[in-house]
Amino acid sequence: MGGSLNIGKLAGIKVYVHWTFLILIAYIVFSGFSSGQQTIGIVYNILLVLSVFACVVLHELGHALAARRYGIGTRDITLLPIGGVASLENIPENPKQELVVAIAGPLVNVAIAAVLFGVITLFFDIALFAPENIEETLAHLNLHTFVTNLLMVNVMLVAFNAIPAFPMDGGRVLRALLALSMDRTKATRIAASIGQFIAILFVFAGLFYVKNPFLIFIGVFVYLGAMAEANAVATGAVLSGFTVRDALRTRYTLLDATNTLKEAVSELIAGADQDFIVTENGSIAGVLRRKELIKALAEHGQHAETTLIAPFIERNLPYLQPDDDIKEVYPMMQQNGFTLLPVLDQDGKLAGVLDLENLTEFVMIRSAIIENK
Ligand SMILES: [Zn+2]
Question: Quick one: what percent of the chain has pLDDT higher than 90?
Answer without folding.
Answer: 5
